[in-house]
Amino acid sequence: MFVGGAGYTLAAYLVPEASGCKANAPCTTTGDGTTPMLHADMPPGAYYLIVTGADFDIPGACGTFTLQSNGFLPVTLQSFDID
């Protein structure tokens, strides 16, 4: 579940690391502040989790967000930079 700050409409995408989805159409899934990401039918593999503002937000819209998971996250964030 994703909870965005005031004035910031969150959009999240789960994208495969390489184009290895083949016939599995739900290989890329999306979510937002009201819609959980559905991933039960996605194959094991490496994926990128992208969290950004929605395309209909005004230019420069930004905010804080909270990411919650009810499952196992097998990775640890090592660094994060904004240039």
Walkthrough of the structure:
With 83 residues, the protein is mainly β. It has a domain at 2-58. Helix content is 0%, strand content 29%. It contains no helices and 5 strands. It has strands at residues 2-4, 10-16, 29-32, 47-53, 65-67. The strands form 2 sheets. A 3-stranded antiparallel β-sheet has the order 3-2-4, with no helix packed on it. The model has no long low-confidence stretch (mean pLDDT 68).
Q: In terms of topology, how is this protein built?
A:
Blueprint: E1 2-4, E2 10-16, E3 29-32, E4 47-53, E5 65-67
Antiparallel strand pairs: 1-5, 2-3, 2-4
**Spatial strand order of the main sheet:** 3-2-4
How many DSSP-defined strands? 5
Name the poorly predicted regions: none
Shape: globular
Return Rg in Å: 14 Å
User: Which range does the strand content fall in?
Assistant: 25-35%
Q: Provide the helix percentage.
A: under 10%
- Secondary-structure element order, N to C: EEEEE
Outline of this structure?
The chain is mainly β and 83 residues long.
Overview features:
83 residues, mainly beta, 5 strands, 0% helix, 29% strand
